[in-house]
Amino acid sequence: MRVIKGDRSVEIEAPIERCYEIAADVESATEWQGSLKDVEVLERDGERRPLLVETESDAKVKSVRAVLRFSYEPPTAIRWVQEKGDSKSLTGSWAFEDLGGGRTRATYALEADPGRMLGLLLRGPAESKVRDFLLGDAAAGLKQKAES
Fold first, then answer.
1. Which residues of 106-126 are buried (b: 16+ CB within 10 A; e: fewer)?
2. Who has the most CB within 10 Å: 58, 86, 133, 134?
3. Cα–Cα distance between 19 and 147 in angstroms, integer?
C-alpha cells in the first residue's frame, strides 16, 4: 500500500491569530472538524497546550485511533506526528499565512501510511475519497468556524 498524502488550502476572512487559536484548541476540534470523532488530552506542555493527544477519526471505511504528539509555532504552524495507532504512520500540519486585511490562508496537510490491514480497505477509488474527505473536511470546518 502506498502512502496517502495531500493538502488543502482555504482563504479565510479572519485574522491569522484567530485561525491559529481555533486550530490550536485541539480539544474543541470535534466541534468543527467532522471527521474527528473524539479527542482525549493525555499530556500538556508548559503552556497548558495539548501535547500528547489520543484521537478517533472517521476514515470513511473504518474508525481510526491514533496517539499524536503536537508541536506549536504560533501563529504560523501546528504539527503532529503519530506515536502509536491504527495506521503505520501519520503526520499532519496546519500552516497559516497572513494575507493582510484580516485575511488568512490556512493549509491543512496529512501524510499517512495506512499499513497493510487498513490499506486493504483503501484500494482504488476509496483511497481518493478518504483523502478528499479528510483534507476538505478540516479546511472547510476551520473556515466556517473562523468566519462565524
1. bbbbbebbbeeebbeebeeee
2. 134
3. 9
Within 10 angstroms of residue 138's Cβ, the number of other Cβ atoms is 25
> Mapping DSSP to helix (H, G, I), strand (E, B) and coil, where does residue 17 land?
helix
Predicted TM-score of the model (pTM): 0.88
**17-70, pLDDT tens digit by residue?**
999 999 999 999 999 998 889 999 999 999 999 999 999 987 666 678 999 999
Distance from C-alpha of 79 to C-alpha of 93, rounded to nearest angstrom? 4
Q: Is pLDDT at 132 greater than 70 in this prediction? A: no
CATH architecture, range 4-147: 2-Layer Sandwich (3.30)
